[in-house]
């Protein structure tokens, strides 16, 4: 009972640490994009690059953090992450040009890796029979924090101004995160592979944990890598596109922010429900269905002239993005084991870090500038990404215990 209580405390602490980072990664750029465009006199493409640099940091540091945590330990890694994120948020107040804004975003992305990878590792070790559920809780907090804080950012911006708002939020994030980080230790003993796959028939038994070199020689690794690139691009692009789309339709800023809020709500909920439902129905089916639904909604969205329908469609897109992040972590554990989970998951997420940014928010921003705001083209190719991802993820399968990993073509 005492051990279970420690595990629950670890889940709460990990979620508290990732809350503020998620709010600033997924909510702040969308709310502040019009302000940055006006004050810096730049176009949508330049603002879209903010997320490119954030994701580039994810691509660089996800794998490294996965390696480092095996030597340093999750609690120390998370502590480093929350301190770096808190100080970086302070620095956002002094981002007076695009370069400094890009540096701010890159550092925030790096700090999020120090919290995200160790948190997912810790909660899966504490609850090996419900790893989709507990990974979903952490991911839910990461995504839903923006839905909670995006309207708050808008209110504080209007009432306090840009600099005072950032100073207040950074102080709260730094203090709360540093305290919570001290309760993120993992269990004293790692679970066995039999325990890791005791949750049900949808979680087939892997004979042992694969090394990074063995994992990259499987087809499943590369199918999941491509899925993270395409579905990640389609999801992350909505952060900067949602408010711009609403304004292009002639709706007020408050109404346009509702689209971003709806996306962030289901982005967070999808991380929880995606992880939970994948424990029941299987990772592949859960991800494939939600990706396909997101693709259809993207194709319909540019023809939408009703705010309520736009909010609904953005919600479905957010659900697909949230499911990617909620179910992909336990899927990696299904396929490759827990021992080197951090390094393998980080390596897969290089696709999300290095490709999702350029082909998602950056490309979509430049296309909008080039086509003078034609969302049919932008939402069309993002919808196609979702459909292709729906097909790709169905081929991600754990290797059977009796056979070695297949060599990738």
Automatic annotation (TrEMBL):
Coiled-coil ranges from the UniProt annotation: none
Presence of keyword Membrane: yes
Keywords linked to the UniProt accession: Membrane, Transmembrane, Transmembrane helix
GO molecular function, one term: transmembrane transporter activity
Domain Major facilitator superfamily (MFS) profile: 8-401
Xref: SUPFAM superfamilies: MFS general substrate transporter
Annotated transmembrane regions: 7-26, 46-65, 77-95, 101-121, 133-156, 162-183, 222-245, 281-301, 307-329, 341-363, 375-396
Domain of life of the native organism: Bacteria
Keyword Membrane among record annotations: yes
Record-linked Pfam families: MFS_1
PROSITE patterns: MFS
UniProt-listed InterPro entries: MFS, MFS_dom, MFS_trans_sf, Proton-linked_MCT
UniProt cross-references to PANTHER family, sorted A to Z: MFS DOMAIN-CONTAINING PROTEIN, MONOCARBOXYLATE TRANSPORTER
Protein name per the record: Sugar phosphate permease
Organism from which the protein derives: Desulfomonile tiedjei (strain ATCC 49306 / DSM 6799 / DCB-1)
